[in-house]
């Protein structure tokens, strides 16, 4: 009887400890998309640190910033005593990851490459934070909307489209990039899809030779001047036909549900122009 009661109390203790570990978890989200994921899973109050540019939702802007393009401020992060650090593969430095692990901090590295990876990897985070029920609902909504967008746009006539990721130097993307996923959904062909570099630097002459029908500028506003280098090049179809468009990179470059808003906008503005017979 005594052994039974002792075993029972051990079982109860383990259950309570397991629950408590989720309830008191302190989380650092070291990429903007991971910050959005954590908030979407209802974990905002548990976030103790974020990365630079973690600006959505607005509440995230109040959190301490402990990482940027140069890496993690490990001293600042460790002082905040996180027990779970969420990182992106593109910015995760192996030496820093190992140091965090030596401090007993759990590290999870995210690396979405396709649109379909978003719900899969969101669920991985959800499993670490006991929020799988929320993630399931979010993922169902995401995949339903993604399928709807694909069905609406993916089968229309192809159009040659130059996607400008950055203006100085001019950077675009190849066929093995995140951007290619978006172009494919909108039936937009990438003139630099065969390039060996995921995000290659190109020059104006190379773009002129490709003669794109559409130019997409990854920037919120024409006032940025990021597309000025094309304005006088009327020999390019996109310029001649006034088919140069600006689009907010926050809605295209982040691996979150908001990408579907950007994707739908991209497909809408690049709709084939009907010509009179």
From TrEMBL:
Entry's Gene Ontology BP terms: cellular response to iron ion
Stored PANTHER family: MOLYBDATE-BINDING PROTEIN MOLA, VITAMIN B12-BINDING PROTEIN
UniProt KW keywords: Signal
Keyword Signal tagged: yes
PROSITE patterns in the cross-refs: FE_B12_PBP (PS50983)
Superkingdom field: Bacteria
Ranges for domain Fe/B12 periplasmic-binding: 26-274
Keyword Cell cycle in record: no
Signal sequence, start to end: 1-23
InterPro entries xrefs: ABC_Transporter_SBP, ABC_transptr_periplasmic_BD, Vit_B12_bind_prot
Protein name: Fe/B12 periplasmic-binding domain-containing protein
